[in-house]
Amino acid sequence: MRIDIITLFPEMFEPVFNDSIIGRAQKSGEISIHTHQLRDFAFDKHRRVDDTPYGGGMGMLMKAEPIALCFEEICRQTGERPHFVYMSPQGKTLNQQRLKELADIKNICVLCGHYEGVDQRLLDSFIDEEISIGDYVLTGGEIPAMVFCDALCRMVPGVLTNNECFTEESHYNGLLEYPQYTKPSEWRGIEVPDVLLSGHHANIEKWRKEKSLEVTAQKRPDLLKNKGVL
Which residues pair with 112 in a beta bridge? Predict the structure, then answer.
């Protein structure tokens, strides 16, 4: 998978994506992440990519043409049109199901917004979908883009050591994950459940499914309603 990120602050992404799991996946070739400085596609000596909105109002608006030129250059580099995502508080809230669907796409481009947003003409003409990471507003789209890319990349085959690393996690199947324990078997008077020490795989699997439902009912009952359980 190739991910291109259009941003005013490409340096923000380097320490996040060049280390740990995502960094190793880039080195081994499962994914490649490319950042693009939007100001490189501006026209004036000040490299401005924003201007005042028509009709008045507070703040500035990102101009359409620099973003369009940057995206068209990415299309030339990749040899095809990537799926174009805009990180926006107006978008659909990101969830695991959508990540599973997007993980099958080979080329994705992500636009990081700033100021008061983006000229609507660019959104209508170029953007395939708007994605939000929650019902709140940040100072820019870079952190949401990092969240989106991190969550997406770990779904790509080969990035994690085993698919069970994410298929057993919270939200993958619409439920929260069961409780987990590690050594020692007794810690400050609290013991690991006997079933996990039994070695009986069928009983362990049954316990985990029951606990997954129990945890979901306690912490996120809305998820069970969505599955038609409650």
Answer: 87
